[in-house]
Amino acid sequence: MASPSFEYFRSSFDNVFQILPQGHEKALKKALYNTAANFFVIFASLVLVAVYFVLQAFLRPLLWAVLCGTFLYPFKRTLTSVLRSWLQGLHESGTPFAAGVVLIPIKSVNDISEIISNTLIKHFKLIIVGAVGLPCLNLLYYFGPIDSIFSWIYNFFSFLYNVIQCFSSGWIWTVVLGYVIMIALYWKPENNKQLQYLSIPVWVLFVLHLCSSAGSLSAPIFILAVAMLAIGYVSEVNQAKAEKGEVSG
């Protein structure tokens, strides 16, 4: 139940709106709301300023600590290690300090060029692909049959989507459950290889069934899953070959 003071305030407020000319109530309400919002913003700003002045003695050391921890200390440690290795190199080679200082620009240029050349050699294939692929894509965009390519991609994804939707029924779980029961009942070390071969179509059916529940994204998700499986298989084969080479060596 509303209190008498609230009812009195509400009636007084309604009386003020009744005094106004017809059609001015909305403008007055909007002005009151804007004024209240401005007062709230000013009050919040004053509170923030007051909190800043109260915590100013604590914020400055914290900011300096963050600055030193994130930039100054790592920079100092890196500079110290570089100078230490440089002085150690001068000591080991017997180079005078003055000659070492004079040779700093030449050595810096040599080191930078060596880093750039090593980076280019390390990513040589990627650079070649980018240097050849970007102009080809540019030529294909301006002079190639873009509409035909996009139409082919759309038709491919539509066909893949329709194929994936064929595996959306529940009989896939029957196949998976049958495979699990077969492993539980008939697994032996001598027929392990046959069960591994049999697991490939079962996993393919299971992945297709999971992708079919993704709706319109089923085709891209299936392509991503196949790519991840292929990458995992290739990495496992390479790892097995490396382990076999270590054992034979």
UniProtKB/TrEMBL annotation:
Cell compartments where the protein resides: Membrane
Statement: the UniProt record of this protein carries the keyword Transmembrane helix: yes
Topology in membrane: Multi-pass membrane protein
Main location: membrane
Cross-referenced InterPro entries: AI-2E-like
Top-rank lineage group of the source organism: Eukaryota
Membrane-spanning intervals of the chain: 31-52, 58-75, 124-143, 171-187, 207-234
GO terms for cellular component: membrane
Protein name per its UniProtKB record: Transmembrane protein 245
Classification lineage: Eukaryota, Metazoa, Spiralia, Lophotrochozoa, Mollusca
